Structures are given as structure tokens and as C-alpha cells.
């Protein structure tokens, strides 16, 4: 591998950025058409003891264990309410669990996955309320 000069590196980086920008501007619709549609499953948890850091940590640990065990999950995110403050933001929940699946069928499999059922068995005593928002790409 030959060593690049700073000028050669900057020139190559500039060309890459320009091409990437053109692809983004001109190929956005084509890129979107090529993207596979996904099924999004977003779960919000309210704890029986909302001030208990221990309960929140137990729930998060349970979700992390589930994320590793459930085979149909494509991608996931565990979150807590942000400090943002606008009229449209609900920060009353304790933990959110955002999941991406290939399709509805994969999400249906997840619902009966032994790892998911074990998570519910082990952690359901922690929450008083759960709300789920499912959506599919259009």
C-alpha cells in the first residue's frame, strides 16, 4: 500500500463527498425503492415504582437479554425519556423498546418466541402499564 500525500487524500475525499452528495440528491427515490420494507414495533413501559432506579435497571437488563436471544429482531434500541420539553412530547414512561423486523410475520414469530415469553414472565411484575405502537412501511 503506497503512502498518500495530504493533497492526494484531500482530493480523493473531496471526490468521494461530491459523488456521495450527487447520489443522495439524484438517487434518493431510487434508493428508497430499493430499501426493504420493515415492521416497526415500539413498546413503552411505565413502572409500578417509577422512581426506582433498581426496577428500571432490571427492566433494561431484561430487554438486553431478550435482544440477544430473540432471533427475528433485526435491530433494536432501548431508551429512556429525553430531557426535551415541548407540548407534544410525552415523557411519562420509564423505558422504551424500539424493534425492527423484516415483516409482520417475523414480528408474529417474536410474539411467541420462548425468549420473549420468558422476558414477560420475569419482568412483567415491574410494569404497571405497557403501550405498543406497531407500524409498517408504506
Automatic annotation (TrEMBL):
PROSITE patterns referenced in this protein's UniProt entry, alphabetically: S_R_A_B_BARREL, TAT
A Pfam family that the UniProt record links to this protein: Dabb
Highest taxon above the source species: Bacteria
InterPro entries in the cross-refs: Dabb, Dimeric_a/b-barrel, TAT_signal
Transmembrane segments: none
Residue ranges of every copy of the Stress-response A/B barrel domain listed in the record: 39-135
The entry's keywords: Signal
Signal peptide location: 1-32
UniProt protein name: Dabb family protein
Provenance organism: Chitinophaga tropicalis
Amino acid at each position: 500500500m503506497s503512502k498518500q500525500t495530504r493533497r492526494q487524500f484531500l482530493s480523493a475525499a473531496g471526490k468521494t463527498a461530491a459523488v456521495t452528495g450527487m447520489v443522495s440528491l439524484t438517487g434518493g427515490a431510487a434508493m428508497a425503492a430499493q430499501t426493504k420494507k420493515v415492521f416497526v414495533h415500539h413498546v413503552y413501559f411505565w413502572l409500578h415504582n417509577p422512581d426506582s432506579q433498581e426496577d428500571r435497571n432490571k427492566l433494561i437488563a431484561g430487554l438486553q437479554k431478550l435482544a440477544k436471544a430473540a432471533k427475528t429482531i433485526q435491530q433494536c434500541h432501548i431508551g429512556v425519556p429525553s430531557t426535551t420539553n415541548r407540548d407534544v412530547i410525552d415523557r411519562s414512561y420509564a423505558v422504551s423498546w424500539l424493534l425492527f423486523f423484516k415483516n409482520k410475520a417475523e414480528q408474529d414469530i417474536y410474539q411467541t418466541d420462548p425468549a420473549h415469553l420468558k422476558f414477560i414472565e420475569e419482568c412483567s411484575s415491574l410494569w404497571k402499564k405497557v403501550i405498543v405502537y406497531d407500524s409498517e412501511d408504506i
